[in-house]
Specification:
The chain is α+β, with helices and mostly antiparallel strands and about 120 residues long. The chain has helices spanning about 30-40, 50-60, 105-110; strands at about 1-5, 10, 20, 65-75, 75-80, 85-90, 95-100. The termini are close together.
């Protein structure tokens, strides 16, 4: 489901498949990787530095734990949600795309599973 805010920003609302919350700005990259490895056992690819940076920025801004959620997955992509940002990561090369400007049809054309 897509929610369009008054300022024109788009938020994708999705049920998490798996989720973990931490105060990401307090963790090193190695510590965050260990948390991701333990939490996202169903992912085709673990969250990358772009997902981590989004989570760190939100944690620092909110001064609290921020959830990172796996919201869709297939053999080609893992899709993560951090606050109002939804990012798809390609298994083949780690390319990371924001789904804010995507429609379900466009995502389907390039093989990205759409969050439910």
């Amino acid at each position: 489901m897509r929610l369009i805010h008054a300022d024109g920003s788009i938020e994708i609302l999705a049920r998490p498949i798996q989720k973990v919350a931490r105060q990401w700005d307090k963790l090193s990259a190695d510590e965050a990787t260990a948390v991701f490895q333990e939490a996202f056992t169903e992912a085709s690819l673990l969250p990358n530095y772009i997902v981590l940076e989004q989570a760190r920025a939100h944690a620092e801004e909110q001064e609290t734990e921020v959830p990172v959620a796996l919201v869709a997955v297939n053999d080609l992509w893992s899709v993560y949600s951090v606050a109002s940002t939804t990012l798809a990561i390609a298994v083949q090369d780690g390319e990371t795309l924001s789904l804010a400007t995507f429609t379900p049809q466009l995502a389907d054309e390039i093989g990205i599973p759409w969050p439910r």
